[in-house]
Design goal:
alpha+beta; 6-stranded mixed beta sheet; 32 strands; 25% helix; RNA-binding
Length: 590
RNA sequence: CGGGAUGUAGCGCAGUUUGGUAGCGCACUUGGCUGGGGGUCAAGGGGCCGCAGGUUCAAAUCCUGUCAUCCCGACCA
């Protein structure tokens, strides 16, 4: 049956909704695909559902082809499994919690690692049952601090999540590869541009993790790429420790007055005015900037740490969070400085053993960490830990030591890739998929063990694999549109062809009906604009807004036995004989 | 949580400064004309002006409080 515009539950809007900022959100609402109920929560109208279902169908096919089996878990879950893994608390405010009539705690599942693991534990107890990969396409709930951009970051969203269970690490590697492979097929079939980047595995305790990002200026993730093929989320970029350099000729460190130089820029200016450099002039890269950070543990305890990095770089908050996780990272506040009078703001510098960072109220020494670019033997201009004074030629290894590394500096375009594969370029991306070797963390916590060939209990190793289904609707809408509206790829379009009957000649409508029958007879899905007494302008505008890639116009040409085949993307329209219209359409479709 | 903005019909907005019977465009209903680019004429329906309190003869408008939404940031497998 065709989708008839005359009866379709649809109202297109002439104007952009005022709360929509990004193109995909604007167009999906205007064209009548979705409607907002609350921040980050949307209703799906018939057209939206058609697209979502098509995406799900492709995901399902490729999952099944990869040997995964579909299951379906509840979205409403009891607290207990999440208490065992600690996520009832770890998830914090992002978890939707609720109580039943007996006052028992429940949650709306933000993800399903726990219950998948428990189910496998319930049913399986032998290595012979493994490997196993199961998946579901299901609604997730996360009470995001700030939902944004329509479907791109919602509080309710559909995700395909798959979990693999293996006895051995090699098995996990295979399961992971199968999913990764399926993801590539899925995104290729959908026509979504993607980049696979190394991701941070840290917080989840896994060993290997990659993200599939759709490059987009509105993306929330920043990733780096090199010409030689390196690609990683900024959080996951790890730099090598700079090789030692020979600093034996470095002049002795000297403390000098440096009035009014609390910032790097003022220090560089002062240096150039008062201290000549052997070659060229001083720049911010010659200074050692010492940033005071506060690490907040899950118990809420605040710990100060000082990080030394080249003065031309700032701290990247996300990299810092990933590095110090699960602790949270903040800039030190005025209050923190007050507790440690030894920290002279604007004039902080490293010392030989860090003793002088023992403040009176300090419970322990403040750790001093350095950026990996700070090479042993390199000399720096840096704070003297006295107001209005800096030190010149302070040499790492000779004049100061560090307690460790902190690879948290911002990455700049043009920085060398850690693997030597060229210079990095920075881009933004939308995370559309994530594959993850979880390892044994959840299996351990939840006691998922099986007997191996020797009759010994072994802990199962797991992988977790997600695709944001509803987010993909937005990503596709974002990638495929023009000033007139949406332009869906054929793989996800709500219909294969959009047939317009226009004019007051009933013959045009009869031809449209006839072509609809013929199209459906060869397996094409049809949207049919059979609305009467509507001006052609309205019909054309709606067709363009809705975005079916192929449009057939049955109008004034029918008297000459012709209809027009309209390519939505290229905007080309050609007149074709009615009897050959369908054949032409089929041959034009890719 | 910090900064900014906004709540008036399904959607987009004016009206608030200076208090005096609720407006416009789109959408919707009926009829006519029109019939290849959101056409036109006429007649209609639709409002707790976010909510609560206050000031006043009188509040969309002034005052106090509160709730909500959007944007930026923080946060976010």
């Amino acid at each position: 049956m065709p989708i008839r515009l005359s009866s379709l539950f649809l109202r297109t809007l002439r104007e952009d909704p005022s709360d929509a900022e990004v193109q995909s959100h604007r167009l999906l609402v205007r064209a009548g695909y979705i409607r907002r109920n609350a921040p980050g929560i949307f209703s799906w109208l018939p057209l939206g559902l058609l697209v979502k279902n098509k995406i799900e169908a492709i995901v399902r096919e490729e999952m099944n082809a990869a040997g995964a089996q579909e299951v379906y878990f509840p979205g409403l879950l009891p607290k207990e499994p999440f208490e065992i893994t600690g996520r009832w608390n770890e998830y914090g405010e992002n978890l939707f919690r609720l109580k039943d009539r007996k006052d028992a705690d429940y949650l709306l599942a933000p993800t399903h690692e726990e219950v998948f693991t428990l189910l496998v534990k319930d049913l399986y107890s032998s290595y012979k049952d493994l490997p196993l990969t199961i998946y579901q396409i299901q609604i997730k709930y996360r009470d995001e601090a700030r939902p944004r951009a329509g479907l791109l970051r919602g509080r309710e969203f559909v995700m395909k999540d798959a979990y693999s269970f293996d006895v051995t690490d090699e098995g996990l590697g295979k399961s992971y590869a199968a999913q990764r492979d399926a993801y590539e097929k899925i995104f290729r079939r959908l026509g979504v541009e993607y980049v696979i980047v190394k991701a941070e595995a840290g917080a989840m305790g896994g060993s290997k993790s990659e993200e599939f990002l759709n490059p987009s200026p509105i993306g929330e993730d920043t990733f780096v790429r090199s010409k030689g093929g390196f690609a990683a989320n900024v959080e996951a970029v790890k730099f090598e420790i700079a090789a030692d350099i020979d600093g034996s000729d470095n002049p002795a460190a000297e403390v000098h007055d440096s009035p009014n130089t609390p910032t790097i820029a003022s220090l560089v200016d002062y240096s150039n005015a008062n201290h000549s450099k052997a070659e060229g002039s001083w720049s911010s890269a010659d200074t050692l900037k010492n940033v005071v950070l506060v690490l907040i543990g899950q118990d809420g305890k605040r710990e100060l740490v000082i990080v030394g990095l080249p003065g031309d770089r700032g701290v990247d908050q996300k990299r810092a969070e990933a590095f110090f996780g699960p602790k949270e990272v903040e800039q030190a506040t005025e209050e923190d400085f007050k507790k440690y009078p030894v920290l002279v703001k604007g004039y902080i510098g490293p010392t030989k053993s860090g003793q002088q960072f023992l403040g009176e109220e300090a419970e322990s020494k403040i750790r001093y960490l350095v950026d990996p670019r700070i090479a042993k033997g390199s000399a720096w201009i840096t704070g003297a830990n006295q107001d209005q004074k800096h030190i010149w030629n302070l040499t790492y290894g000779r004049d100061f030591d560090a307690d460790g590394l902190a690879d948290i500096a911002e990455i700049k375009a043009g920085d060398p890739a850690p693997d030597g594969s060229g210079d990095l370029e920075l881009s933004r991306g939308i995370e559309i998929g994530h594959v993850f070797q979880l390892g044994r963390k959840y299996a351990e916590a939840l006691g998922l063990k099986v007997l191996d060939e020797d009759g010994k209990l072994v802990t199962v190793t797991m992988g977790s694999y997600g695709i944001g289904v509803t987010r993909l609707v937005a990503v596709l809408a974002e990638s495929y549109n023009d000033e007139k509206g949406l332009v869906w790829p054929e793989s996800v379009s709500p219909a294969d062809v959009y047939i317009i009957a226009t004019g007051k000649d009933p013959v045009a409508f009869e031809v449209a009906e006839q072509l609809t029958l013929e199209a459906e007879a060869v397996g094409l899905s049809v949207m049919l604009d059979d609305r009467l007494k509507l001006s052609p302008g309205v019909k054309f505008a709606d067709a363009e807004l809705i975005g079916v890639p192929w449009i057939l116009i049955c109008g004034k040409g029918v008297v000459d036995g012709e209809v027009e085949l309209w390519n939505r993307r290229s905007n080309e329209r050609v007149a074709v004989k009615i009897e050959s219209a369908l054949a032409k359409l089929i041959s034009e479709r890719s």
